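Q: How would the structure tokens look for this protein?
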Amino acid sequence: MAAKITYTIQDVLGDLSVAANGWKKELTYTSWNNRDEKFDLRSWNPDHSAMTKGITLTKEEILKLKDILNDIDFDKY
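A: Here is the predicted structure in token form.
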């Protein structure tokens, strides 16, 4: 039997998109299994009781991602 995953969303930082069924792809600051909070990117249902797979990033990782995104010439793609 799979272990129960617990989470506490400390802050919803922003929505990236909203699907027709109401699920939102969000950047949140979340604690998983009572560990230190991390930045988290995934889709959530409207009441945050279900989610898709996603990624978590430390502060250092999200700052590096910010630098990478700032340096990309998006018109190239």
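The chain has one domain: 7-76.

Strands lie at 7-18, 24-32, 38-44, 55-57.

Upvote if useful.
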